[in-house]
Amino acid sequence: MVSLISFIIMDARLAEAPLLTGSFHGALIFDEMALDGDRLSGFATASSGRAIYASYRIRSIEEQQRLQELGPSATLQVVGTFTEPRPPAHRYAFDMAGYLQRHNATGMLEIETLDSATPGTGLRAHLARQRSELIEHIESSFPESLTTEAQALLLGDRSGMDAEQARIQRTLGITHLFAISGLHVGIVSGMIYFVLLRLRIRKESATVLLLIVLPLYAVMAGAAPSVLRACAMVVFVLAARLFGLHVSAIQALSASFILFLWIDPGLLQDIGFQLSYGASFGIIASLKLMEGASFIKSGLIVTAVSQLCLYPLLLFHFFEISLSSFLVNAIYVPLFTLVILPANFILLAVSFLPLGVDAILFAMYEPLRSWIEGLTASLAGLPRQVWTPGRPSAGWLWLMAVSVLLFFVQAEKRFRLKFLLILLVPPLLLTVKPYLDPRLHVSFIDVGQGDSALIELPYRKALYLIDAGGVLRFDREPFQEKSRPFEVGRQTVVPYLKARGISSIDLFILSHPDADHAEGADEVFEELAVERLHITPGSEANALMTALAPSAREARVELPKNGAGWRVGETQFSYLSPVDDLYEGNDDSLVLLMEHQGQRFLFTGDLESEGESGVVERYGEQLADMTVLKVGHHGSKTSSSQAFLEALRPQISVVSAGIDNRYGHPSPEVTARFGELGLRLLSTAENGTIRMTIEDGRMTVDTSRK
How far apart are CA 87 and CA 659, in angstroms? Predict the structure, then answer.
């Protein structure tokens, strides 16, 4: 009852409130600010006590160096303006407004002037500096091949991990091993307690010291939900023991759960918090299954229970499950527990000793770790390891949660293999659902200033992706370069596809080799299986296509042109352009016409007025009264000519362009042209991702921004 009342109160505290607007002039206190390239950002506290997310564009390398010298904590005197967070590209993409809410922030501030900056003071600032210095110490004293892992395992800093490492960990289901958790806390507690007893300190005094040290370690380790949860549980148990009280694991877990949510309601929406407590509740509730089991069997049960308990949450947040995670974790959990994690603690300790002791240990450990890393990469390279049912709706999520509960209730009485059906049926039904859908779906994905469209044929007979967006990279000073630049393919396109339950693409069409259409393609190839790739004839030697070739090596590459076509069921596809094998620019974009149940879609790439004239000249009558036109070249004034629009008279036209893009797309001339002709025009900049569905010859339109 207490938990329920606490939840209701915290839920009320999480109610959305309007974000701050207008200007700001005053001090911001950063507990931990991030510097990446020419950008400073982080959550800060204003003099009013309100939490604010602030960011600042650094003007010069000298200013960057001065800010770096401050350390992670600082007090800044600033002048800025509160801005509205940009809406997400689609419902499965990163949501800045939700991110602010999760961190109880009341505004998003763009700092315009930085008047002064002083280092932070107090215990929290001191611990943040110590953490930063330890991260730098590891970088300078550990071999390069061991640095990233040590920073993640010892201090919770995963910033050095690249996209490929993250992909391998997700594929094998071992991401949790690289996050500080109860295992780390247990090892740290055991080491400290052992040392204190060896120093002949009484057990009661050692316990008191542990109660002091563990919260400090939680902050030093980055204060992630998993380490906060583990430290709090140990603190509750040890404190109770000091007073002669007995606190069970479930009581400690429940108490820490209520305490943290009372302090910070936003944690309820934190993925790490949900996964950490979900796994812990599942393991504690299943202790009966481990009675009388050997160490190895107990480890396998713990691994299985945590994986099974979390699968609904994993699907909701990440849209897929690693099928190999159980077997892999059965090997890697003991490996990390007994070898890798203790080794990193020992190596960190000896790295402070003189006489080169660390060099000897590094020489022994590095080859072993390199072999394990090679094995891990090889395992991740095996096919069909990831199951991608997509994101479950609220109803599906509840059904899965109930199935997990029923499974453990039955398994605790007496385990039978047939009980696995209770777990498997909901996700299997979710996987099968798209293959029973008779509708055709076309999604114009909001990729900012670029193009990307997804075609899902009825009953999932085929899946086609046209372009993958991209970020136009401009020349920048070295100090401006970010360690993790935005990747539209990996962070926008792939999440949309995976959330729709898509793990492979039958046909990937790159209309032409411009960065805003094809730069994100390599990330799509890395994350999804692609059977065929269509590129415009003559573009093979283009620099972007040459760079893409290694990623696309497993796809069958074809170079279609005018007259090529195919049919799938009642859906017809035809290429209307280009007419030759010479690629000269936008007017040689692949132009695709799709016809389904009397509805016709024309995808034009970056076709401009000259190319439009050629298409109309060849197919004018066939294109009249077009259902949907994907507007060429993002609505540039060099496209969507009067003659072209009059020939097509599309019912709906879609412009794919970025919010406040530097090109001014769509051009006012073009939008005026559509208005004069009475043609409906939608834009991803205003409407977000636009999804069109055809059922029984009728089309409906849905947008992610209403």
Answer: 10
Alpha-carbon distances of 163 from 57, 169, 479, 509, 602, rounded to whole Å = 25, 10, 22, 24, 35
78 touches 40 (CB < 8 A): no
pLDDT digits (tens, 9 = 90+) for 20-79: 899 999 999 998 888 988 999 999 999 888 999 999 999 999 999 999 988 889 999 999
Triad 497, 501, 506: Cα angle to 5°: 65
Q: For the chain, what is the largest distance between any 2 Cα atoms, rounded to a whole number of angstroms?
A: 94
Q: Which residue from 319, 288, 318 is spatially nearest to 305, judged by alpha carbons? A: 288
> SS3 for 81?
strand
Q: How far apart are the C-alpha atoms of 64 and 61, rounded to whole Å?
A: 5
Least confident stretch, 456-460, 570-574, 620-624: 620-624
Q: Before 426, cis peptide (omega within 30)?
A: no
Closest alpha carbon to 281 in 421, 445, 404, 462? 404
Asked if 95 contacts 84 with a C-beta cutoff of 8 angstroms, the reply is: no
45 touches 28 (CB < 8 A): yes
CA angle (196, 199, 202) in 5-degree steps: 65
Distance of CA 306 to the CA centre of its chain: 22
Residue reference for tokens 């002709």: 677
Question: What is the rounded CA–CA span in Å between residue 343 and residue 229?
Answer: 24
Q: How far apart are CA 129 and CA 40, in angstroms?
A: 17
- Output the pTM of the full model: 0.91
Q: Assess contact for 256 and 232: CB atoms under 8 A.
A: yes
Q: How many CB atoms lie within 10 A of CB 3?
A: 11
Please calculate the CA angle 453-586-485 and round it to the nearest 5 degrees.
60
Strands 680-683, 652-655: parallel, antiparallel or unpaired by DSSP? parallel
The encoded tokens of residue 489 equal 């393919």
**Contact, 78 vs 28, CB < 8 A?**
yes
Q: Please, which residues bridge with residue 628 across strands? A: 601, 652
Q: What angle do CA 527, 533, 539 make, to 5 degrees?
A: 115
504 φ, ψ (degrees, to nearest 5)? -145, 150
pLDDT digit string, tens, across residues 620-659: 888 999 999 999 999 999 999 999 999 999 999 999 999 9
Please name the residue that has the structure tokens 């996964």.
Answer: 275
**Phi, psi at 113, each rounded to 5°:** -130, 130
Supply the DSSP string of 156-187, one letter for each residue. Answer: ---TT--HHHHHHHHHHT-GGGGS--HHHHHH
**Cβ neighbours of 503 (radius 10 Å):** 18
Cα-based torsion angle of the residue sequence 260, 264, 270, 272 in order, rounded to the nearest 10 degrees: -30
What is the C-alpha R_g of the chain? 28
Question: How many other CB atoms sit within 10 Å of the CB of residue 164?
Answer: 11
